[in-house]
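Hello again, I could really use a second opinion on something today. I owe you a coffee for this, so here goes:
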Amino acid sequence: MDLVIRTRGPSSQKGLVLVYISTGRLSEADSSYKQMLEGFSDHPGLAQAVYEVARKYKDLRQFEKAQGVYQQLLANKA
């Protein structure tokens, strides 16, 4: 079951993504991450949220996932 958190910014959705990553629920993390990108594409706090997701992957030694998120951040200037 995917949760979508509706707020004024991406930080709550980012928190959900980080919980999913930390608990090894990577498919839910991917889904919530995509929802964060789509739901807050114009929000000025999105780049910071994306960066924190990439750092979480890196900290947990999920280097390929981290690299993909970092590359997305650079390509899209999220």
